Amino acid sequence: MADGNFDEERFNLEIRKFLKKVGINSQREIERVVREGLARGTLKGNERLQAEMKLTIPGADLTYVIADEIALS
Question: What share of the chain is helix, strand, coil (3-state, %, to 5)?
Answer without folding.
Answer: 50, 25, 25
